[in-house]
Amino acid sequence: MPFISSLDKNIWAHYIPPYPDELFSSWFFRLSQAHHVKSHSFGRYYFKNQQFWNRDVDNMPSQYLKDIIFNNTPLNYSSISQLFLTSYESFLFESHNPFGRTMGILPLGIMHRKRKNNGLLFCPLCLKKHPYYRKSWRIFVSYICCKCRVLLRDSCPVCNEPIAFHRLEQGDKNKIQTHSLNHCSFCLYDLSSEYKMASSLQLDYQQKINTILHQGFTENYSYSFAYFKLLSSVAGLLSRRHTIWGRLRYACENEFGYLPENSESIDLWNIDNRRIIFEMAFKVVDNPDILLFLIKEYNLRLSEFNKDHSLPFFFENIFKSNYL
Ligand SMILES: [Zn+2]
Ligand SMILES: [Zn+2]
Questions:
Q1: Are 197 and 149 a contacting pair, CB within 8 Å?
Q2: What is the 3-state secondary structure (H, E, C) of 32-73?
Q3: How far apart are CA 138 and CA 109, in angstroms?
Q4: pLDDT tens, 259-306?
Q5: Engineering a disulfide at 264: which of 93, 202, 268, 308 sits with its beta carbon 3.0 to 4.6 angstroms away?
């Protein structure tokens, strides 16, 4: 291993730096490829008992994992932390749950080395330019790639399987896989070859979401995580019909058209249906005039919105203003 005197340590012989916004698992996979070994062997050799593919490693980094990376790369602890989804704490969500689901993070549905859910998204054109997976492709508020102006996808357009790039190295035990990360691990289709353009409206809302996420605050809702919590709970309300808690959904369908439905939790839906609900939720949360109109026309009740948690003052005040 080369010794770097300015850092006073040896680093991995074929060290490659993570790309901007790269997920730990994507970088780890590329790092193993750079060392000409399968990720399983690379992991066993350097990380001993750390599990990589039968757990959501991007969502549960251990101190041990971070220490091994720190000891073998030029990265400092702050850059290492940025590789993991926990770095969204205080921005996308208030606090990370190390033992289960955290609001805002798409669940992968891990069964051994398989993935049941479409919890990892991708932009076909980003994959074409630089085949690696971004951290922002694991979160509930990502739908559009603003750089490429295209819709994100959540499965292979040919075989419909979820993205599981670590399976690209399965097969012959002694052969290192040579496919880059833009391929489907089931049918080897090039995931970068099909894409759909986003509308200017979609680009606008995604840009706004990205700015809020980056800044950590919003003008009306103070902390960004309070805003995202509200957005997710409104999307949840819109996602199912309900005799008592379904007034908002009824109002929105009546005013703006059909909304898809599914009894599963919305973060398990496919991205195309989820996007429709999310756009509706964004319209309601982001436009006090639309919300006020719906409250008046459809006699919406505050209890529908705050049944599970307290609401930001700004949102609650829109309801109160209706009764002034
Ligand atoms: Zn892109
Ligand atoms: Zn496929």
A1: yes
A2: HHHCCCCHHHHHHHHHCCCCCCCCCHHHCCCHHHHHHHHHHC
A3: 13
A4: 999 989 999 999 999 999 999 999 999 998 999 999 999 988 888 888
A5: 268
The CA-CA-CA angle for residues 229, 232, 233, to 5°, reads 85
Q: 249 with 235: CB under 8 angstroms?
A: no
Give, as residue ranges, everything with CB less than 5 Å from ion ligand 1.
123, 125-126, 145, 147-148
Cα-to-centroid distance, 150 and ligand 1 (Å): 7
Separation of CA 282 from chain center? 17
Q: What φ, ψ does residue 285 adopt, rounded to 5°?
A: -75, -30
Q: How far does residue 66's CA lie from ligand 2's centre (Å)? A: 33
DSSP string over 299-322: T--HHHHSSSS---HHHHHHHHHH
Give the Å distance between the CA of 280 and the centre of ligand 1: 23
Q: How far is CA 217 from the centre of its chain?
A: 19
Distances (CA, A) of 4 to 17, 32, 220: 15, 21, 49
Q: Is the pTM of this model over 0.90?
A: yes
CA 160 – CA 156 distance, rounded (Å): 5
CA of 140 to the centre of ligand 1 (A): 17
Share of the chain above pLDDT 70, in %: 97
At 109-118, the pLDDT tens digits run 998 888 999 9
Low-confidence ranges of the chain (pLDDT < 70): 172-174, 176-177, 322-324
Query: If you measure from the C-alpha of residue 206 to the centroid of ligand 1, how many angstroms do you get, rounded to a whole number?
Result: 13
**Cα angle: 142, vertex 147, 150; to 5 degrees:** 65
Tell me, in angstroms, the distance from the centre of ligand 1 to residue 191's CA.
Answer: 12
| Distance from the alpha carbon of residue 44 to the mean position of ligand 2, in angstroms | 29
Q: Contact 156/102 with Cβ under 8 angstroms?
A: no
Q: Spell out where 150-286 has E strands.
A: 150-151, 217-218, 222-223
130 C-alpha vs ligand 1 centroid, how far in Å?
A: 10
